[in-house]
Sequence to fold (1009 residues):
Amino acid sequence: MNMIIPIINVLLALLLAPLLPGIINRTKAIFAGRTGQPLLQLYYDIFRLLRKGAVYSRTTTWIFRAGPIVGLSSAIAAATLVPFGGSRALLAFSGDLFLFAYLFGLGRFFTVIAALDTGSAFEGMGASREAQFSALAEPVLFLGLVAVARETNSLSLSGMLPAMTPETWIKAGPVLTLAAAAILFVFLTENSRIPVDDPNTHLELTMIHEVMVLDHGGPDFAFIQYGAALKLWIFGELLTGILLPLHTGWPPRDEIIAIALMAALAVAVGIIESTMARLRLVRIPQILVGAGTLALLSLLLALR
Amino acid sequence: METLIDSVMVVILLSNLLLLGSSRLAACIRIVATQGIILGILPLLSSEGEITIRVVLLAAWSIALKGMVFPWLLNRAIRDASVRREVEPFVGYTTSLLLGSAALAVSLWAGLRLPLPPAAVHSSLTVPVALFTIMTGLFVICSRRKALNQVLGYLALENGIYIFGVAFVQKAPLLVELGILLDVFVAVFVMGIMIFHINREFDHIDTDQLSTLKE
Amino acid sequence: MITALIILPTIAGLLALIIRPNAPRRALLLVTATAHAGLTAFSWISGASPALSGWLMLDGPGILFLGITSVLFLAASVYAVGYLSHEEKGKRSDFEEGVGFINAPEKVFTGALLFFLATMTLVAASQHFGLLWVAVEATTLASAPLIYFHRHHRSLEATWKYLLICSVGIALALLGNFFLAVAAAAHDGSSTSLVLSDLLRQGPHFNIPWLRAAFLFLLVGYGTKMGLAPMHTWLPDAHSEAPSVVSALLSGALLNCAFLGILRAQQVLGAAGQGAFGRELLLVFGLLSMAVAAVFILSQADYKRMLAYSSVEHMGILSLGIGLGGSGTFGSLLHAVNHSLTKAMLFLVAGNIVTAFRTKQSGEISGMLRVLPVSGGLWLMGFLAITGSPPFGPFLSEFTILKAAADTGNGMAAVIYLSLLALIFIGMMTAALRMTQGLPEGTTGEARRTEGVLSIASPLALGILVLVLGLYVPPPLRDVVREAARVVGG
Fold:
């Protein structure tokens, strides 16, 4: 019967994912002294968008329509790979962390070519930036995950995260801190958060992620929003699993703790967004290389 | 205790990487000062056990010198020179970071293969971090234009050598330790004065342009 | 006695910074130099008791180098008094480029000079490697203001290079010290002593890989200070931009002090049975320095830079001598004496030439023998001496080293040594002959063609010494050099 908990985890992810952007926005609003949007705003937005029709430009092809769908489906597939709350994921096998990373790669690839498909200059610009940053972020993610894998002696996400305990932190503190710092930065990059990208900007020249999805509307946009929220949730699972491995052994309690940690992570992201400004574009590759160095360092330390 | 020293070593390691990647002079000065402070605390963590007055005094003196006096001297040199506060290196920041990572890998490899006597400060990271800091110091001296950066590289070099000393040379005589500290202090002092003169003479502290004397 | 030798110049240096009128300060300089020379002579004759529980002791090499330093300092201070009184105050114009500059305050110069003497004495007397390191670094810091006496951009550049390169080198020597401590670590965990006598007693108990690494770092570190190629790059700039008095002391005394550091390391290596390892390295560095110096001397237009490169060459010869071993050690230490005296004399005469002709280019000077008879004669004589011609001192010591090369079967080294000496002879003598002979051309500006007593007294005295040493090595000197050679282990 221990397949029930992984299934429940996936359902929780699908259900609760849109709550995270709500928490982030509410945190930012509190910092700004506003009341802010309702917490369930993203749900309302998605339902509204699903009921709308979509307009497709004549210059686009099937790729444009396929982009959001592939993005969403890759996110859902990745959701089945990540363990949550101390129990294993729905799908687990040795080496699934590579599948995990490349599922997101697939989604990103389709988003980029869908953006290029429109033939618009702005979206091409956003696509090139996104491609550069994710090209730099990918080795960082791998190095960080491999360092954690070395510490927990398993190449499967379900073997790594549930096996971590506070004792692992005491034993391998420096390695895990560095790996977590690197993965935090990948988290911020992949989800287009400040300091890498400003999700609230209205100026196309400063957009990276939003500009790629500028031309999508209706259900496509709903899929994109939902997929982004799901991605946020999944990366959050990864990060909280490494940072705070609190497993008590009783599944319901673990689940509640894990959900609380996700909410706390969302608040933390909100705080980061409120207190920092977005970095100059030339700085972001430098910072990514810096994060890569941290990840390399954690791997070197784990290997000795 | 071992994890604590491990963590301290990792912090020093990170400070070196930061030094390689920083683009602001003031940040570089602060990084080297932090390194100095951490190194001042290091003897107190020594597993030799006895924390005598002498060790405490030396640690306090070292922290005061490296953490407060040097940054003050160097910041004053920047201020009086009123130079552009950017680093302006020969080798770009990303390349520096990548070269730093390569140097780190080499130091870790080399450090773990050296036949070592029992160290006073027990951590398998001590020798690699010492080597890495030395390499960082030398790299900064060679790859940075500004005279101030060269002084910072020299300080990082001294810090790296000091890590080695703290780890392996038990009970160095007080006179020698004080002498070393005094020498480094006077060196930084004299270099600060020279930087002031260089700026007054040339209106910049770009040592790349100090190339009149050839052959 | 030893503490007096160190404390006396230190206090004098502090006083020099306080005294305002010039005449008493110059008198202080002379008095201190004379007192220091007197104390050194006393120590030479009747030995000096160790101080600081054995950390300060004047053994063979120590008293030899201290003697050289003291004599040179006395000669330099006599010259300096004349030099300082003739240096123009206030803004002046640089004759090479016409830029305006001022001199550093005279009290800084005199104070730094006296501190320089104190730190060099400390180097000579140190028996503890840590203290030796502190002293060598202190000499760098004390001599930096001296190089920056004429405050213009060239000397600033030279001072910065000097300061940075030597400090980095000496920092590497510190790492060598730590490696030495690791190598000497007693296995029962008792504290390691870096006092020379304790280390020598350790003998075969050294950890050999660490000892070799220590020697390498000490060689590179102190070799930077000594001017061995390829770490010599600061030397030509510093020695040519500094005032000639300072150059004389730098070339004649400071390089020897750095050499002393390497000698101490070689002593430890010898005690551990690794002497051959050290000698090989010294041989290579020595020949390399000579080769580099030869290349740069052959095309050198600036005569002070030529003298500086000649210092690099002679440091190479010193290193070569030790590297050959046997009687080469004796030859090397004797050569230290000869070279210091000759090079100091040459630099002091160069100071006279600069003042009189207002140019540092050897191509622009001719007819020195007619214009400045004593200086010109000493210049020619000095060049003959420094390139190794009989009947001067350096000939004897260089010949001893050549003989050692032949004795130890190092034919290749002997051949390279001779050919490089020949090349350098050609390069330097052509310049010297061109400068001294012929008719004086019209030179720029107001050339002072007189030779004050103070400006020729010292070079003349040094020149006579060099000549005497070429004909006859007095027994006291020979005994001390022999003892020093025995201590170093040749």
Q: What stands out?
A: Residues 142 and 202 of chain B are 21 Å apart (CA to CA). Chain B touches chain C through 40 residues (CB under 8 Å). Residues 2-209 of chain B form one domain. Helices of chain B lie at 2-21, 25-41, 53-81, 93-113, 126-143, 147-168, 174-202.
